[in-house]
Specification:
Blueprint (H helix, E strand, L loop, with lengths): L2 H9 L2 H4 L13 H6 L6 H12 L7 H8 L6 H5 L6 H15 L4 H14 L3 H16 L2 H8 L9 H5 L8 H6 L3 E2 L7 E5 L4 H5 L1 H13 L2 E5 L8 H5 L3 H16 L5 E4 L2 H8 L1 H4 L7 H10 E3 H5 L13 E4 L3 H5 L5 H7 L6 E2 L15 H4 L1 H17 L4 E4 L2 H13 L7 E4 H9 L8
Parallel strand pairs: 2-3, 2-4, 4-5, 6-7, 6-8, 8-9
Antiparallel strand pairs: 1-3
Length: 437
C-alpha cells in the first residue's frame, strides 16, 4: 500500500468500518433507506463504500458524494447497531475528505465561506440577522411580499419556511437580555447558559424563557460572554477544522465561568458539545479541556428534571413529543423531557408510533433536499395525527420548524400547536418574558 492510499484510509477512518458486520439491523431505523430503498443510502451501504475506497477498489471519491450527502446524520443506526459502529465519526470524516477534494462553483464557495466562517460564528452578525427579521415583519414588507406571491417563488422552497418562523423580537428586547440571573428560590446549581447562534437569532424568546425557568428552579444563570456557534453545521458540512476552532473558542469562553453545568436547549447544539471530547481527542493541549467541557454539557431538560419547578396550572389536553435525533441518539437524553411533561397536571401524554424516527429537518437538510425531507415529514405526520394530540412538543429548533411545516401541510394549523418544551412548561407555569415589538 502506497503512502497516498494509507493517508486516505486514515482520513476516512477506515479501521472503524471493520466493526460493521453488515447485519442490517440499521436498515429499518434509517430514514433514507426507508425513503429510497437503496442499499447505498443505508448506513451499512455507505460504510461498505468507504471500505471499498479505503481498499482501493473504488478510486473516485465522487462515488461517495450522493450517498453521504443524502444522509440525515440522525445516527439512529448507532442505537440499533449490535457491534458499536461509530457511524457518526465515519460520516463526518468522509464528508471532510470529500470537501477537501471537491471543487465548488464560485457562488457555492462564496456562500459556504460567508455563512460558515463569517455569519454563524459572529454574535454581531447573528444579532443583525435577528434584527433584520424583526424589521422585515414590522416594516410591512413581509405582508406585502406574501400578498404579492413573491415568497412562493423563493429558491429552495424558502417561502414555505418563511411562513412558519416565530415572531421576531425587537432590537431593544434583544439588548435588554440579562447577562446574569440569580436563582429565585434556594440555589441548587450555577448554570453557564449556551445561547447558540441560530437559536438566539431566531428563537430568542425561548432562550429567555429557558433562563427564567432555570432561575425559578433554583439556578444562578450566567450567559457566558464570547461564546460562539457550537460548530455542528460546520462538522456536518465537512469543515472539520472550522468546527475544531469553534470548539476551542467555546471551551476557552466557558472555562472562565465556575459553573456546575453548561446548559443548552437545542438538541443539535447539545450533541455537538458533548462530542468536543472526541473532536479534540488527538490534540494534546485541548484533549482534557474538551473532555471536561463535554462532561459538564447538559440539555436543559436534564437540569430541570433534577429541580423543584414552580407550580404548573392544569392543562386538559393531549400532548405528544417529537424526539430530537441528536438529543436522543447522541446525548442519550430521552426520558427527561417526557418526565417533565408528565409533571403538568391534567395532560394526557400520548407517544406516537415510530417516535424515534427523524422528522427530516436535520440542520439544513430540509432546504437542500426538500422533496426527500417532505417525504420523511409526511410519514412522521401520519404518526403524529394518529395520537390526536393538540400539542406537539419538540426540543430542537429544526424539529420545531419542521413539525410546524408538517402541521400546515396537513391543514391542522387551527387545531394543533407545535411548541418547544420550554415554551410549554413556561406557559403551564405562567412564566413570560418582556415583549416589546
Amino acid at each position: 500500500m502506497d503512502s497516498t492510499q494509507k493517508q486516505l484510509r486514515e482520513e476516512l477512518l477506515y479501521d472503524k468500518t471493520n466493526n460493521c458486520v453488515q447485519c442490517g439491523y440499521c436498515l429499518p431505523v434509517c430514514p433514507t433507506y426507508v425513503a429510497f430503498g437503496k442499499e447505498t443510502h443505508s448506513p451499512r451501504g455507505r460504510i461498505n463504500l468507504v471500505k471499498m475506497v479505503g481498499e482501493g477498489r473504488i478510486t473516485n471519491l465522487s462515488v461517495l458524494e450522493e450517498p453521504f450527502d443524502y444522509c440525515l446524520g440522525c445516527r439512529a443506526c448507532e442505537t440499533a447497531c449490535p457491534t458499536g459502529v461509530e457511524y457518526g465519526a465515519i460520516l463526518e470524516a468522509t464528508r471532510a475528505a470529500i470537501v477537501r477534494r471537491k471543487r465548488f462553483t464560485v457562488p457555492v464557495r462564496i456562500l459556504r465561506k460567508s455563512m460558515l466562517k463569517k455569519v454563524f460564528p459572529s454574535r454581531k452578525m447573528m444579532n443583525l440577522t435577528g434584527d433584520a427579521m424583526w424589521l422585515y415583519e414590522k416594516s410591512g414588507l413581509k405582508k406585502a411580499l406574501r400578498t404579492s406571491g413573491i415568497t412562493k417563488a423563493l429558491p429552495f422552497h424558502l417561502g414555505a419556511f418563511e411562513s412558519i418562523v416565530p415572531p421576531p423580537v425587537s432590537p431593544a428586547e434583544r439588548k435588554r437580555a440579562p447577562g446574569e440571573v440569580k436563582a429565585r428560590r434556594a440555589k441548587q446549581f450555577t448554570i453557564a447558559f449556551f445561547t447558540g447562534c441560530i437559536m438566539d437569532a431566531m428563537f430568542h424568546r425561548i432562550n429567555q424563557l429557558s433562563i427564567r425557568l432555570l432561575s425559578e428552579a433554583g439556578c444562578d444563570v450566567i450567559v457566558v460572554q464570547n461564546q460562539t456557534c457550537c460548530g455542528a453545521l460546520h462538522a456536518h458540512s465537512g469543515e472539520m477544522e472550522e468546527a475544531k476552532e469553534l470548539a476551542k473558542r467555546n471551551i476557552e469562553a466557558f472555562e472562565k465561568v465556575n459553573a456546575d453545568y453548561i446548559v443548552n436547549n437545542a438538541g443539535g447544539c447539545g450533541a455537538m458539545k458533548v462530542e468536543y471530547g472526541h473532536l479534540l481527542a488527538s490534540e494534546e493541549e485541548w484533549a482534557e479541556r474538551a473532555k471536561a467541557f463535554s462532561a459538564k454539557s447538559k440539555d436543559i431538560s436534564q437540569i430541570l428534571a433534577l429541580c423543584d419547578l414552580p407550580p404548573f396550572n392544569p392543562r386538559e389536553e393531549r400532548v405528544t413529543y417529537q424526539r430530537s435525533c441528536h438529543m436522543t441518539n447522541v446525548q442519550k437524553v430521552s426520558k427527561e423531557p417526557i418526565d417533565l411533561l408528565k409533571r403538568v397536571p391534567g395532560i394526557q401524554f400520548v407517544e406516537m408510533d415510530q417516535a424515534e424516527m427523524c422528522c427530516g429537518s436535520a440542520g439544513i437538510y430540509n432546504i437542500v433536499h426538500y422533496d426527500v425531507s417532505m417525504q420523511i415529514l409526511d410519514e412522521k405526520m401520519q404518526h403524529a395525527k394518529a395520537t390526536d394530540a393538540a400539542i406537539i412538543i419538540t426540543t430542537n429548533p429544526g424539529c420545531l420548524l419542521q413539525m410546524k411545516l408538517g402541521v400546515e401541510r396537513e391543514g391542522l394549523s387551527q387545531s394543533v400547536r407545535v411548541l418547544h418544551l420550554i415554551e410549554y412548561l413556561a406557559e403551564a407555569a405562567g412564566i413570560s418574558v418582556p415583549d416589546e415589538n
